[in-house]
Amino acid sequence: MSLIRDFIEAMAPSHAYAEEAEEEEEAVEDVKEGDAEEEEEEDEDDDDDEDEDEAVDPLDALKEECQKTAECAKSVKEFQACTERVTKAEEDPEYANKDYKEDCVEEFFHLQQCVNKCAAPKLFSHLK
Amino acid sequence: MFSRLGSAFRQNARAYSTSAKAELSSNTKKAISSVVGITGLTLGYIVYQDSQTGKAMTAAEHGLQAPEYEWSHKGMFDSFDHASIRRGFQVYREVCSACHSLDRISWRNLVGVSHTASEAKAMAAEFEYDDEPDDQGNPRKRPGKLTDPIPGPYANEQAARAANGGALPPDLSLIIKARHGGCDYVFSLLTGYPEEPPAGVQLAPGANYNPYFPGGSIAMARVLFDDLVEYEDGTPASTSQEAKDVVTFLNWCSEPEHDERKKMGVKALLIVGSLYLLAVWTKKFKWTPIKHRKIVFNPPKPPKRR
Amino acid sequence: MSFYSTIFQTVFKRNSVYVGTIFGTAFVFQTVFDDAINGWWETRNKGKLWKDVKVKLAAGGDADDGDDDE
């Protein structure tokens, strides 16, 4: 399918990439930031800028968003339940001698798979 | 002398074969068949016992499957994003190169891909390389040239292991080709370090947890953080942005022919495609009269009987 | 004279002309074809190629390395 899509896109290179729109948005944001700083203080302009940029990594933001979706809610719940269970088991003084020690890798994987499925297709439109 | 030896051997062989033939009819035959039978039964038993226990790998041992990302060079006719390669080299140079070498890339390879010739020359000149010895045979050093390979952080493998607690940081020149999942895997690995490992996971001292690494326990700690580098083009340096850029750069290292290859692919498809159509047309052209002919058999009229 | 006979008279009649035509056409076709594909490739991947990046660098970066080599 993607091959055919590529072909069609190739034949009609009128496809507009989102770059221009993004640039506009950035420009708008810059203006806003600039305004805000001018209103507040002009001493630590650069530092403020960096802090605001650094605030959110788009990947982290997307992952957090995805954890709240209905599909991933079940995985989140299971992972939390497992974490509680295992932490409780670890508090047991006999824990070191137990034959079977549970870990939450499987639950963690299920959760990550769900989050990735939701976040991965969106991520690169947020990056340059 | 040799002929005598040969004849002796022949005689011996004959004696052996005749004796075997003689004895085969007796108990030896039974002995052989029983040995064969016992061996067969034993092997069968071992195979059966082995089949009773399965040794499947756990999910953790396989590693978490990396998701597919929308790389700008993913499509059939998409070139690398060279601005990203340039940023990625910056990330490699400022972060990765502390531990990882890039043996197969020379400074000259960057020229016309991510840097201008003078930029590459300036970067090469920051490093010292072995020069030819002077007249007394003493070793000399000289500043790097475009033709020099990008130097690695360690002199040899032993030094690299000693500096990293026994773990060898792999050379990154071909890393995208050398790992299942390629770009997606390396990107996921770089960005996939959780805050803390899932409960119950036991890690060796010095090891870090990463779900994408098969086994989950990796010697490399998380290295990419927000605003670790400062991009010259003003791109916000989030962790995922840095990872994306460095993976694009490493993909270029693995496949420097990538852009040219895809462009050549378009040409090949067009030419071969039209040649195919031409071949079909020629075949039809040549075969039409043969396919469309009509063979009529007009039998001679039988002579009339009277 | 019909179209086919014109072509026959001008191209196919003499072997030297015929071979020369093949070589000439191949040469011209290669140039035209390469240029066409290059043009298409560069419009399709506009902004990602090194030549675009270089222009941006020269414009955006400081003028200390405004060189034109490669």
UniProtKB/TrEMBL annotation, chain A:
Keyword Transport assigned: yes
Listed under GO cellular component are:
mitochondrial inner membrane
**What residue stretch is flagged as signal peptide?**
none
Which cellular compartments is it found in? Mitochondrion inner membrane
* Entry superkingdom: Eukaryota
One GO biological process this protein is involved in is: mitochondrial electron transport, ubiquinol to cytochrome c
Electron transport is among the record's keywords: yes
Would you identify the family this protein belongs to, as annotated? Belongs to the UQCRH/QCR6 family.
Q: What is this protein called?
A: Cytochrome b-c1 complex subunit 6, mitochondrial
Q: Which organism is it from?
A: Dekkera bruxellensis (Brettanomyces custersii)
Automatic annotation (TrEMBL), chain B:
Query: Does the record carry Transmembrane as a key word?
Result: yes
Domain of life according to the entry: Eukaryota
Picking any one GO molecular function of the record gives: metal ion binding
Q: Set out the biological process GO terms recorded for this chain's protein.
A: mitochondrial electron transport, ubiquinol to cytochrome c
Question: Which Pfam families does the record associate with it?
Answer: Cytochrom_C1
Required co-factor(s) are: heme c
Name-wise, this protein is quinol--cytochrome-c reductase
Q: Which PANTHER family match?
A: CYTOCHROME C1 (PTHR10266), CYTOCHROME C1, HEME PROTEIN, MITOCHONDRIAL (PTHR10266:SF3)
**Swiss-Prot/TrEMBL keywords:** Electron transport, Heme, Iron, Membrane, Metal-binding, Mitochondrion, Mitochondrion inner membrane, Respiratory chain, Translocase, Transmembrane, Transmembrane helix, Transport
For this chain's record, the cofactor binding note is: Binds 1 heme c group covalently per subunit.
Q: Where does it mainly reside?
A: mitochondrion
Gene Ontology cellular-component terms for this entry are: mitochondrial inner membrane
Please tell me whether the keyword Translocase is annotated for this protein. Answer: yes
Q: What is its EC number?
A: 7.1.1.8
Give the UniProt subcellular location, in the record's own words: Mitochondrion inner membrane
Q: Where is this region: Disordered?
A: 127-163
Record organism: Dekkera bruxellensis
Q: Write down the chemical reaction(s) this protein catalyses.
A: a quinol + 2 Fe(III)-[cytochrome c](out) = a quinone + 2 Fe(II)-[cytochrome c](out) + 2 H(+)(out)
Residues binding heme c, per UniProt: C96, C99, H100, M220
InterPro entries to which the protein is assigned, alphabetical: Cyt_c-like_dom (IPR009056), Cyt_c-like_dom_sf (IPR036909), Cyt_c1 (IPR002326), Cyt_c1_TM_anchor_C (IPR021157)
Q: Which family does it belong to?
A: Belongs to the cytochrome c family.
Residue ranges of domain Cytochrome c in the record: 83-236
From TrEMBL, chain C:
- Localisation per UniProt entry: Mitochondrion inner membrane
Keyword Transport among UniProt keywords: yes
Q: InterPro entries, from UniProt? A: QCR9, QCR9_sf
List the GO terms this entry assigns under cellular component, sorted alphabetically: mitochondrial inner membrane; respiratory chain complex III
Respond yes or no to whether keyword Transmembrane is given for this record: yes
GO biological process terms held by the UniProt record: mitochondrial electron transport, ubiquinol to cytochrome c
Q: Which domain of life is it from?
A: Eukaryota
**What keywords were assigned to this record?**
Electron transport, Membrane, Mitochondrion, Mitochondrion inner membrane, Respiratory chain, Transmembrane, Transmembrane helix, Transport
Name the membrane topology term. Answer: Single-pass membrane protein
Q: What does this protein do?
A: Component of the ubiquinol-cytochrome c oxidoreductase, a multisubunit transmembrane complex that is part of the mitochondrial electron transport chain which drives oxidative phosphorylation. The complex plays an important role in the uptake of multiple carbon sources present in different host niches.
Task: Describe the protein's quaternary organization and the partners it interacts with.
Answer: Component of the ubiquinol-cytochrome c oxidoreductase (cytochrome b-c1 complex, complex III, CIII), a multisubunit enzyme composed of 3 respiratory subunits cytochrome b, cytochrome c1 and Rieske protein, 2 core protein subunits, and additional low-molecular weight protein subunits.
Family note: Belongs to the UQCR10/QCR9 family.
- Its name, as the record gives it, is Complex III subunit 9
Q: Which organism is it from?
A: Dekkera bruxellensis
Q: Which gene encodes it?
A: QCR9
